[in-house]
Amino acid sequence: MIVVKVGGSAGIDYDAVCTDLAERWKGGERLILVHGGSGETNRVAEALGHPPRFVTSPSGYTSRFTDRETLEIFEMVYCGKMNKGIVERLQRLGVNAVGLSGLDGRIFEGRHKDSVRAVENGKVKVLRGDHTGTVERVNTGLIELLLSAGYLPVLTPPAASYEGVAINVDGDRAAAALAVALKAEALLLLSNVPGLLRDYPDEASLIREIPAGEVEAYLGFAQDRMKKKVLGAAEAVQGGVLRVIFGDARAGQPVTAALMGAGTVVS
Ligand SMILES: Nc1ncnc2c1ncn2[C@@H]1O[C@H](COP(=O)(O)OP(=O)(O)OP(=O)(O)O)[C@@H](O)[C@H]1O
């Protein structure tokens, strides 16, 4: 089993990702696709007059402040436009894909964090009304049902809180939790960069290999949102996933290239 997570930042070639996935799926490989949608969510939020607000925690992690209106815009884009766009591409390629959010069937479950600590103008503030959380539990029943019936699951945040409230969760860490729960042999985190860069944004500074036991030591190279990918990779390998690859989804055969070792390989 391979879990592929494709991001939602500008420049990602979804046709390339889906074509590559479809070929591998038809060749008999068992796959699950998880996707993001941050770039498009920012555009739609601006257009709807509710611009995105990103907050940075005292420990340096950046996240989207998700009030109820933001959550609804997030769902429109992630579960609507992005998810159905990917499912449609796969269907056109002859793959019977099914798109679901983590809320459906409680595939992704976690605790609802209603407040977030954020550094603003040098001061730590507590912001309330946040609909975020972290995936703590993956309920694989529905996924296994779909896979055994020949469907390719296409998953996206949000997740369900334990009280059944939709919560915005990080897609990379959700994919990592899924890979652990399904005992996947590989987790691919594909985005609009060649991999983890030692000196971002210099693409020539690609880090080729990271030993599984040393992932956290590489957190320092990742800025803002890349940190969550590195954290997700650490969680996946600690949970028994043999290989995590940060790969490039901008062109070519992103899945095949990553599985052949292009990008940053954590093992
Ligand atoms: N050291 C680094 N190496 C590579 N990219 C980095 C680094 N530091 C920061 N980045 C940034 O991290 C981004 C990838 O994270 P981001 O969460 O935006 O991607 P995504 O997975 O495509 O999006 P989504 O949240 O929609 O799933 C890159 O586009 C890059 O700008």
Description:
The protein has one domain (2-266): 3-Layer(aba) Sandwich (Carbamate kinase), CATH 3.40.1160. It is 32% helix and 29% strand. The protein has helices at residues 14-26, 38-47, 68-92, 141-148, 171-181, 226-238, 254-259; strands at 2-6, 31-35, 54-56, 62-64, 97-101, 108-120, 123-138, 152-156, 159-161, 166-167, 186-191, 209-210, 243-248, 264-266. The strands form 3 sheets. An 8-stranded mixed sheet has the order 5-8-2-1-11-13-14-12, with helices on both faces. A 4-stranded mixed sheet has the order 7-6-9-10, with helices on one face. The protein has a two-stranded antiparallel sheet with strand order 3-4. A hairpin with a 5-residue loop joins strand 3 and strand 4 (62-64). The two termini are 16 Å apart. The model has no long low-confidence stretch (mean pLDDT 97). It binds adenosine-5'-triphosphate. Adenosine-5'-triphosphate binds next to loops. It comes from Deinococcus navajonensis. It is found in: Cytoplasm. Its EC number is 2.7.2.17. Its main location: cytoplasm.
